Amino acid sequence: MEITEKLTTNKQIITFLTEQFPLCFTAGKEPAKPLKVGVFQELATRLENNEVVSKTQLRGALRQYTMSWRYLHCVKVAVKRVDLDGIEGEEVSQDHADHALKTLKESKEKAFANKKKVEDSKPKQAAKKVNIPQRTKKPVVKKEVVEDLSQYKPANHAELALQQSVKVLLGKSPVSAVVIEILKDDVQVQLNSGMIVKVKAKHLITE
Predict the structure, then answer these.
(1) What pLDDT, in 10s, does the model give residues 115-128?
(2) Secondary structure of the chain: what % helix, strand, coil (to 5)?
(3) 145: Cβ contacts below 8 Å, ≥ 6 apart
(4) Which pLDDT does position 119 carry in this prediction?
């Protein structure tokens, strides 16, 4: 099929070159071949009367082709260069191989740096907060100490004496106290807290 439309992109021009000179230019997974030094001049001469591509476009497409990672990988010492017809010529020099390796390394570093820059610029997704149920501490139940009152006996009003140690039956636990006054029907005692209360003898127990 004859190409009549003018090519506009480097990709189109490179495809055109692989079709016109398949023994020189390669595409896809096929390994690239080091190009003959001065191959641009040969291209310009061969395509001088071809209206689909200009010299300026050829120069740009050729630069893109030779700067690709696939091409830079093939430029190694002692590998023979080829012309447009695939005829092998001089070998790749050490300087050219070193330059290709350096260019490849810089290109990859730049590509990876740009990729990282794009990834870093993306809004980071906040870590999903997981609610861990907290274990509720059970209140410590204070064990009630039951005092041994087996040695005590109900107080007898007539037998009580001043300054006698007694237990006053108040609430759940008897409270220690001292007899400070013995009345006709009641008894006044002073609790360990200093409080003075008046109680009936039946509310007291003694040893």
Answers:
(1) 888 877 777 676 66
(2) 35, 20, 45
(3) none
(4) 79
Torsion angle in degrees (nearest 10) through CA of 160, 166, 167, 168: 50
Q: Write the pLDDT tens digit of every residue in 137-149.
A: 777 766 655 666 6
What CATH class is the domain 153-206?
Answer: mainly beta
Residues 7 and 53 sit within 8 Å (Cβ to Cβ): yes
**Domain ranges, ordered by start, for the chain:** 10-120, 153-206
Give the Cα separation of 80 and 88 in Å (integer). 6
Same fold? 10-120, 153-206:
no
pLDDT tens figures, 80-94: 999 999 999 999 999
Q: Considering only 114-123, 132-141, 196-205, which range has the smallest mean pLDDT?
A: 132-141
Structurally, at CATH architecture level, domain 10-120 sits in Orthogonal Bundle (1.10)
Report yes or no on whether pTM surpasses 0.70: no
Tokens of 178: 């001292």
Q: What is the rounded CA–CA span in Å between residue 49 and residue 36?
A: 22
CA–CA gap between residue 45 and residue 130 (Å, rounded): 71
Q: How big is the chain, counted in residues? A: 207
Q: What gap in Å lies between CA 70 and CA 75, rounded to an integer? A: 9
Residues β-bridged to residue 182:
187
Beta pairing, strands 165-170 & 173-182: antiparallel
